[in-house]
Fold:
Amino acid sequence: MEEENRKKILIVDDVARNIQLVANLLKKNGFSLSFAQSGEQALRSLQRTAFDLVLLDVMMPGMDGFEVCRLIKQDPANADLPVIFLTAKTDIKSITEGFNIGGVDYITKPFNSAELLVRVRTQLELKDSKDLLRKQMRELEAAIDTKNRLFSIIAHDLRNPIGGITRISELLYSRYERLDHAKRQSFAQSIMQASQTVEVLLENLLDWSKLEGNLLEAKMEKVDLAPIAEQIMELSRAQAAQKNIEMGIRGSLELELLADPRMLNTILRNLVSNAIKFTPDGGKVVLETQDLGGRASLGVRDTGMGIGPEKVAELLGGSPNESTIGTRNEKGTGLGLFLCKQMLAKHDSRLQLESQPGQGSFFHFELTLLA
Structure:
């Protein structure tokens, strides 16, 4: 067993012969051992090393084992560290005190080797189970917190476009005969844009739900980039036209990639949409590709607001980000970028970002190139 994977046990006893007897038994059973011949020495060892279990004598000069255990349990880092008393004190009062101050077991000397080994292994298994349960609880709490924040953002951002559709539809219905053609057309366009916002949000939400439930698997196949990229750019032109943003392509789209076509569509759609959102009127958004030889780089560059270094790390982190208002007060959820990162992970890739405040941003990633 490799040293880093071996369970670390600290044996504390003021008698060297007692340490040797225990050490001979545990060492041949694959444990990593350390020793201390006083309570003070044991506490110093615990400050330096993360142990999995302590075998602790009670009768020692100076600080006895009971006091050592109390001090161990007072340290938050070692509060859950299992301590087994291994001592010649066999009276009920001592045994009771050992358990009351936090010991998980109490073994009397002279000990039976097979019994000691079983008790040590049992406590180590219990510790592993508790550690795993705590880890799962932390992950569950983090997941619940992420979902709560995300649902709060979504509820807020769904309210705006849906409310807009309702209000504009009511105006259009109640005043239809009094509105001229241009005004009707303007109202219809507003309804269309709000509906598209809701549609994108719901698509992202559905994808995120599938990812969270491990129901969305990447179906890797040969994908022609050109039709996907051209469709995304074409569908994005209406959004860009509202801000007089120039859309462009740099590099060849004639690339064959190993990817999930639906996920690739979602990734590029979200990156292009975000770029338009954060680019001011009269700016430029460019879809860029580069053949790296065996890999292809794909990205979206804009002349928008840009992002400071402290925000870059946050955006590329593993959680959904808070919604940020666009240059025309466009709403968002932060979910699109999160989906991009999750979907790229299923392609053994990751999202990268180059940006400076006021100088635009370049979100890019790499995929396997087939031709």
Remarks:
- Residues 113-174 form the longest helix (62 residues).
- The chain has ten helices and twelve strands.
- The chain has a mean pLDDT of 86.
- The CA atoms of residues 30 and 41 lie 24 Å apart.
